[in-house]
Amino acid sequence: MTELKGKKILLGITGGIAAYKSAVLCRELKRLGADVRVIMTTAATRFITPLTLQALSNQPVHNDLFEAESDHGMGHIELARWAEQIVIAPASANTIAKLACGQADNLLVTTVLASHAPLYLAPAMNHAMWRHPATQANVELLISHGVKIVGPDAGEQACGEVGTGRMLEPGEIAEHLQQQFQHNFLAEKQVVITAGPTWEALDPVRGLSNRSSGKMGYALASACKDAGATVKLISGPTALHPPYGVECINITSAQQMADAVMANISKCDIFIGVAAVADYRPVNSEKQKIKKNQETVTIEMVRNPDILAMVAALDNAPFTVGFAAETENITSNAQQKLTAKGVDMIAANPVSGDNSAFNSEFNELSLIDRNGITHLSRCSKILLAQRMTKEIARRYHETYSTKDS
Ligand code: PMT
After folding, report:
1. Span of 21-30, 156-165, 334-343 with lowest mean pLDDT
2. Which run of H or of E encompasses 36?
3. Which of 98, 161, 345, 394 is the S-S candidate for 369 at Cβ 3.0 to 4.6 Å?
4. Is 26 tagged catalytic?
């Protein structure tokens, strides 16, 4: 891919052990043809020397808010105007907090605040710091401002603990940046996406649901929006913040999801059913809390509407994409769903074992249509969603150019 040829990328490096990977990221961006300028915070210079980044970027490295102009002829305003894209990798909890509240007390944050360039953050920190409510609240706020968060990865950390907080690998971060420069291949298209679980109430406090977090569906909504589409996200209960610029309709039950989809489908070009919709709901939802005065309880269930099949069966149906969460015979079960539900494409999703897609930051998919299978290997859901969006767009355009001709 050559999407970064001549692109002006500002790489911000903050203080964290993952700063050593920023050298590899800088080299990768240069290899892809980008013009890279680097700002390091003072803490970052404790982990990796400016000389390393200077040699790799072939440019002076910026650090000091007050001496930058006199030293290098490029102050924060010039850097802010120059950048077409800003990526901060690693982004420490401290820098994330400063960005969230606009505390411009160093060159990096000052430059970001003065820039209109899209901002990508690749967080890296101890897993407890990442999970801390303060960090999560700051991340949510930044997402609501349109900042893209790439990662973090899960696994063993430099501190010896295991959890979510490792910086994504440089190659994956570079791919995120490449995607950003691709054309608006879904411009003027309307996309409706379902995401998350549904909740089928048994009584006012209990219900039946599943482990879907909504991450895959929200990532697809974000990727379609970035590709130029107008996106409506119809979401079951999740803890996620809707992607910037995406209209989100919150529902609880499968019936409510079906009603919301049908109310929004008429102008839709592409429908993607990512939600883990309950197949059945209790016949009766009790008005009062069920008392535990019996040894066993039998709950009578009734089928919920199959939203995906309903959309695919519409006259003038949109290009319809389903997901198939499978624990065994993944491809053949997904192929059956492709045919039974009459959809244009289905994403077979393995969900058993340690690598289950449910509530994970990562996933892998096999995209199945009538022409064959395309495997998208395991990576972050954000990147996977970008890859899948491209595949959907390609098939959508092929289908409609054939119909029109
Ligand atoms: O939310 P995450 O934690 O990120 O996890 C993502 C995911 C695992 C939930 C997602 O990638 C996924 O696989 N979603 C589909 C889950 C599912 O319920 O699959 P299914 O095989 O039961 O359903 C097949 C398809 O029919 C799905 O597109 C589903 O949205 C749709 N369906 C199912 C039942 C129903 N009543 N109506 C539907 O529209």
Report:
1. 156-165
2. strand 35-40
3. 345
4. no
Q: Quick one: angle between helices 50-57 and 19-31, nearest 10? A: 10
Residue 94 and residue 100: Cα distance in Å, rounded? 10
Q: Are residues 107 and 244 in the same domain?
A: no
Nearest CA to ligand 1 atom 33: 277
For ligand 1, atom 26: residue with the closest CA: 308
Are both 132 and 195 inside the same structural domain?
A: no
The 3-class SS string of 356-391 reads CCCCCCEEEEEEEECCEEEEEEEEEHHHHHHHHHHH
Mean pLDDT, rounded, of the chain: 92
Domain that holds residue 203: 190-280+294-404
| More confident position, 316 or 65 | 316
CATH number for the domain spanning 117: value is 3.40.50.1950
Whole-number Å distance between alpha carbons of 191 and 210: 25
Is 202:224 a contact under the CB 8 Å cutoff?
Answer: no
Pocket of ligand 1 (CB under 6 A): 194, 196, 212-216, 254, 273-277, 279, 304, 306-308, 322-325, 337, 349, 351, 357-359
What's the structural domain count of the chain? 2
Backbone phi, then psi, for 58, in 5-degree steps?
A: 60, 30
Whether residues 112 and 33 share a domain: the answer is yes
Radius of gyration of the chain (CA): 23
Ligand 1 centroid to 347 CA: how many Å? Answer: 10
Q: State residue 45 phi and psi, 5-degree precision.
A: -70, -10
The C-alpha angle 349, 388, 275, rounded to 5 degrees, equals 50
pLDDT of 119 over the 90 cut: yes
Place of tokens 């050298």: 23
Other C-beta atoms closer than 10 Å to the C-beta of 262 total 14
Residue nearest ligand 1's atom 21 by CA: 324
Residue type, 23: A
Q: What is the pLDDT of residues 187-246, one digit of tens each?
A: 999 999 999 999 999 999 999 999 999 999 999 999 999 899 999 999 999 998 888 889
Residue 3 lies in a domain: no
**Ligand 1 mean position, distance from CA 275 (Å):** 5
Of 180, 215, 242, the residue that ends a domain is: 180
Instruction: Tell me the percentage of the chain whose pLDDT exceeds 90.
Output: 77
